[in-house]
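Researcher: Good morning. I'm working through a list of sequences from a screen, and I'd like to move beyond sequence-only analysis. For each chain I'm collecting a predicted structure so we can compare shapes side by side. This is the next one on the list. No need for commentary yet; just the structure.
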Amino acid sequence: YYWKDQSQADVSYEWIDISSDNSTLTFPHNDEAANENINLPFNFYYYDSYYSSLIVNANGWIGLGSDNNAWENTLLPNSESPLNAIFPFWDDLNPINESNSTNMEGYVRYHVNSERAVIWFDNVRRWTGGSDMDGYFDFQTVLYSNGKIKFNYRSMSGDLNSSTIGIQNSDGSSGLNVVVNQDYITNNTSIEIKGKPSWLSVLPLNLEIEPSTSENIPLTFDTSNLTDGFYNYNLKLS
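Model: Good morning. Structure tokens for this chain:
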């Protein structure tokens, strides 16, 4: 996987407005996943597997596996952190929840169609350990049917030095850090994450070749989950 922000010519900020057509998640606690799973009308490809549903944790991350109540964000990859997870803004957030935690504010809403799923943290407040750590965060994650991930940040106010933005796989052996505990995100910005396409496998990924010799590198193309169309990918060998 690799990431780009809108400083790249092919990435632009594009907020998807679902304010008039959405469902609101209910959280049992401000450190746990919502009571409802989100079912996807497409198979989402992530770290070499397909997923048809996801969970949303109150602390600013989306899971394709089990829940985790960790609120203290870390560097990725980390096997003690939420696994098989996507982190648009992992921090100790405090949306409206059934345990009525102190100073809870903001809702998490979503909308799905055949092309994408939007998960919107609608002005969610951080759990306040003091006025210097307070903040309100309005951002969304978009999971596209082709496996692309996009984080859109509309209004991020307060302290921004405490969060993890990135992804990691199902056992914490591989991950991608975009930002960890840095004041990087600003209003009306986007981050885009892409990986290799679902239809291409390359094995082995690492190979030693002796001088003056050659090796064949097999490429496997699997079209079983594709619709009719034209597909392309630039594979770089280093």
